[in-house]
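Page header: ASSEMBLY MODEL / two components / 539 residues total.
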Amino acid sequence: MKKVTILFFYCLAVVSYSCLEEPLEPQLSNNKCSIYKSNINNTPIIDGMEYGHYKYNEYRFHHYVATSEFGIMPTEYRQFAGSSRDRNRIIKLNELKSKWGFNYIAACIGVSSNISAIVNAGYPISSNYLATGFATGGILDRNTILNAGNGLSSSTYFWGYYIDEPYSHTGIPYLTQADFKNFRDFVKSTRPNSLFGFGETNIYTANRYTHNPYFWYSGYYTNYHQTSVDFVMCTRYNGYYNEDDQRDLWSELSNSYSAKFNRTWISANLDNNEFDDLLGHAMNKGAAPWLYQMEDATDLTDNVISIYCDKAWKAGFLDRYDEKLEVWMVCKLNHKHNPNYLEECAWQKEKEIYLGIVKK
Amino acid sequence: MKIRINYVFLLFFLFITTIKSQSMQFGLRLEPGFLITEENKSTEISFSPFSVYLSAAYIPIDWLNIEVRPGYFAAGEEYSGLEFGAFCKFIIPNTKFQIIAGFNNHNNTGTGHNGGGSIEKNILYKGIGIGFNKDSKLYIDLMYYWTNDKEFAYTGYPISYKKMNGILKIGIGFAWNIL
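Prediction written out in full:
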């Protein structure tokens, strides 16, 4: 009698369990039967295999488009791609705009092949190309401003001319206030439509050229060669107290230069843990971010650019465009399995249908 | 072999703690230094007066002084950071002079800007020098430090590295017996 009772309850349990509708994987459906039935009419039985399908939309990153000024000083690998005639380097240069969304470039003026490659990559000279030089004077000297030897006509002007760290560049003599002013006056007289700017590490080294009087260590000094510039950028990637974050420097430069502090550098290597904070702060200050990559001799930086652009998209400097794909999955279910249990399927990707580029 | 050496040291310290002449000193040091650096095969000597150290010394026997020195040394943006040194001073009998040898670890602060920067790293120096005790409280010493791990800063585009070939420090110390 006891065995009969146990057998009865066992049968009851089996029947109850078989009537339960177990949830399938969320992307499939609310219940397996509906999925199965929805596909069963269209799914032939081939060689004893039953086929079921489901589909979903997948989005894959395709490219960014800048919503405002979004610049980069690329590595040598990309910057001097033209003269190298290396196809891979040209592709990397072209990606800066077509894939990553940088709509402004800072680059040495260099030779005509480099300039052509940069222009072909989407940076017109007079509207999106910032000609850069360093305080050595050899790279951005007067002949360079006059396009002597670079293949451009003498009347061609760049969007802007930029001197990097006229005071703080280590290892070379700094530019005197007089030299700086003379150079600026030369640029503005020969290229009146171009911007002229410079980058310095903090307000003291920057004010040294632009303010009168200027504060230096313990007191104020007269600047006999006060120079007016169109913009100032911050070139230092640590704060005053050598903390990682340089936002305190940006705030001081912003207070000192107001609207002239409207673009600033972010280092690809030294700031890569702070992209979020810095891009957010740049947005708040109304300063365009420029990614500084000239520390790298080679170009193994796609990963850094990818992270940087993702943060810039989230901060509002970029729009992101994705490929939209319809992905079809197929279920291969063997007859040995109970056809009511589609979770036992071995789902495999059957095909992808390209639906176009969409803004994310 | 290493364990044996440790035992020897242990026995040595057990022995010396029984000696009555042992004492401890606590003090303050200033160590302005001349930095001998090299970049692109060009040597430069610069001077920095900015340094301060605490000093704790244990004198187990008359001719030996074991000293530790935590402190801070600053020589501009490229070379500055916390330091910790451990030294032995061997007092030359019947004179006020000492021969000093030891190690000093410099924890260089990392900074960076477009035109250059410093490398964040620990640099272990070996040091040797000579000291002079003016009296029981005031002493001066001259130490020379060198390291195999020389790169401490870089210059931005075009990139080159700065090397620390040596540091010559003049130490001025004040010490008080606390034991």
